[in-house]
Amino acid sequence: MIKILLVEDNQEKLRDVLKGIFAIAGIHEEHLDKARDLQEAKSCLKQQAYDLMILDISLPTTSDVEPVRDGGLTLLEEILARDIYIKPREVVGLTAHADIQEEMRGRFDSELWSVLHYSNANVAWLDQIQRKIEHILQTNRERTSECPELADICVLTALHAPELTAVLKLPWDFQPVSLECDPTQYYRGHVSTKYGRLSVVAASASRMGMPAAAVLAMKMINTFRPSYIAMTGIAAGVPGKVELGDIIAADPSWDYGSGKNTASEAGSSFEAAPHHLNLDPFIRSKLEKLRNDPSVFEGVRRSWPIKIATPLSMHLGPLASGAAVLEDPTITSNIQAQHRKLLGVEMEAYGVFAAAHEAPHPQPRVIVLKSVCDFANPEKNDSSQDYAAFTSAQAFKLLVENHL
């Protein structure tokens, strides 16, 4: 696996570089991101870790203005100076101007990087880029063989049954894996997607709640170094906004118990101070594509062995986390006051978001898919938990196989 960022505004150069990169065995479109200007490049570098950045030296700030002679160098200096960016592992500068190459050589050399002279008459620059990519691919293969615990996707649940059980029933050939000095029982599987074969590791937390979910999420991030950390399972829904079995994709997530309890002559009160963590824009776009295809959810509903009359839907919106199981609609109403578009409440999602948010770079992208099993009222029971765990796991399957 390799991830490359190509920052280039010249169409001829872009075409030549792409032709050379895609000539390398194993390199496909999903391994490459493209940016046409400094603004697009900065956006990419805030969200994704890259093995290699191929950087044009003369770049415009935005696509509607003329290139700046040393725009690429300006970007490079900002990447090195500010920790809001994920520093690429390797950088290769590329310029059609020999004088700019010579001028920039010392700065690139100081970081053990290189700057090459592009020419459509002499492809020596392309040979060097291809060798660089092949070297990175070989190093990544060796690292993976030395660290067999690496995975592309990690998925966790709060409960073994019915939540993890529903995940392990996916046709991904899960097998138990035990790690030395780690009490958690992991399961490793593989999934074929339209972009390639991905490895998946699944596990359930030691108990319900944000602390246990955050601990397991951080362990999985540090051990398996996934590109995605996901959570599936069950949640309580807000009546009138969702139905039993409906999938809620959390965006944003927060701890509804965060705030201050105060006392006065009028009595005690709670002043909420929620800290919202939002979904990655890339993941949100994938989830929106999945949500907007109702036919796939009709297939999920019909595949459940018991007839379900209510149509199945997926919702993208606020999901609040808290420390207690709720059966009091008054409390749910108070949580709704924190976000008028609230779709549901549960006990773990914010812990997973927080773990990924605080993890070392490169940080995984977070996906939380919780399905509605009750409405947090006195009529609450466990009769819909199996169905909700099933629809959550199936939605995760559809996302991974068709959109990641």
Automatic annotation (TrEMBL):
GO terms for cellular component: cytosol. It holds the Pfam family PNP_UDP_1. Keywords: Phosphoprotein. It comes from the Bacteria. One of its GO terms (biological process) is L-methionine salvage from S-adenosylmethionine. Residues 3-129 form the Response regulatory domain. Gene3D superfamilies: 3.40.50.2300, Nucleoside phosphorylase domain. GO terms for molecular function: adenosylhomocysteine nucleosidase activity; methylthioadenosine nucleosidase activity. The modification 4-aspartylphosphate is found at residue 56. The keyword Mitochondrion does not apply. The keyword Phosphoprotein applies. This is Response regulatory domain-containing protein. It comes from Pseudomonas soli. The lineage of its organism: Bacteria, Pseudomonadati, Pseudomonadota, Gammaproteobacteria, Pseudomonadales.
